[in-house]
Amino acid sequence: MKRIVHLATITQWDYVRMWRIARSLAKKYRVEIHARAKFDHKIVDGIEIFGYPGGQSFRERYERMKIYRRKMLADPPDAIQINSPEQLPILIEIAKRRHVASIFDSYEFYPDAARYADYAQGTFKQPFFQWFSNDIIPFLVHQVDATLTSDNPTARYYLDKRIKPVQPLLNFPFQFELDRAIPERPSNHPELHYGGILTQDRGGTLILDALKMLKDRGRPTRMIFTGTPPTDPELLPWDRALISRGIEELVEHRGYVSLDENYDLMAMAKLAVMPTMVDRYRFNIPQKIFYYLGWGVPVITTKLAALADVLPNDLPGVYYIPEDATAIADTIAAVLSDERERVRAGAAAREWVRKNIRWEPEEEKLFALYERLLGE
Fold first, then answer.
1. Virtual CA dihedral for 71, 74, 75, 76, nearest 10 degrees?
2. How much is the pTM?
3. Residue 155 near residue 174, CB atoms below 8 Å
4. Are 25 and 366 in contact (CB under 8 A)?
C-alpha cells in the first residue's frame, strides 16, 4: 500500500480541510499527518497522526519544518502534500532528491503568500528562505506535480496566467461537517458572529463602527469574534477600540478556539457578519460563508468575484454590502427586525448548500489525481 504524507506547519492535525482530504485518501492509501498536536502519536480512523508541539509563531513553525525535512529525507513516502507556501522549498527538495510526488494545496494562495517565509529569513537568517519571496513563488509552484485550489474562474485565470500549474486545478473549496449536533441556542446568546482574521483588512473596524451606530440608534446588538486576534493599528489596543466606541459590553473576542467550539458559536448565531475587502479573496472562496449558510445562518458579506462564481445572485440568506459601516448597520437591523424572514432565508440557504455543495464529486477528482501521480 502506497504511503501519503500531509505536512502542516501552521494548522492543527484535525484542520477540517486537511482531515477531509486525508480521510478520503485513507480509503485507498496509507496516510500520515504531521502537524501541530498536543500528543506525539496516535491513530484516528486508520490515519497515523504525528504530533508536534508549539503554536503558530514563525520560530515554532520553522522548528517544525526542520524536523519534517529531516524525517522525510530519511524515510520518504510515495507522495507529500503541503498546505502552506512556506513549505514549498522543503516539498521541492524532498520531491527531487527522493523522487516523491509533490502536491501543493494552495487553498489560500494570494499574491503576498510568501510573507511568512520572508519574515523567517529576516529573523533567523536561514538558507531555506534566502531565495523565497513573492517573485519566486511562480517558479516554485511550477515545479510541483500538482496544485489544488478553488476551482472558480477568477482563481483559474490568475493561476493560469501567473503560476502555470503543471496539473489542472481541482476544486476543494467546501469541507465541513454540516450534520454535527448543534447545541440549543441560549436566549441570551449574542446575535452576531464573526470568525476570521481582523488583521487582513478594514472589515473589523467597519463591524465595530456599525455596532456603535446600532447602539446610538437604540438597537444595541451583541457579537462574538473568534479567530486571529486584532493587530490592525485601528483596533489596537482592542479594549480601547471598544471603549472609545462605547460598545465594550456588547463585544466579546474569544481568540483561537477549538473547531467544535467555533462550529457551535457559528451555528448558534442569528446572523454572521463577514465584510471582506482584502484582495486575497479575489482568488479564493471564503469557506466560512458556506459553514454559516449550511447551518441556516444568514450572512452579511462583500460581493467577491470568487463568491459570484459559485453562489446564485438571488440566493436567500446572503446580503451583500459595500465597504461602508452604515450599510452594515442598516442590514443588521433589517435582518434582525424580521425574525420570520430571517429564519426563512436561512432555511433556504441551508437547503441550497446541502444540495449543491457536496464532497463526493471532489473525492473522485482527488483519487484520479493521486492515481495519475502514483502511476496506478
1. 90
2. 0.71
3. no
4. yes
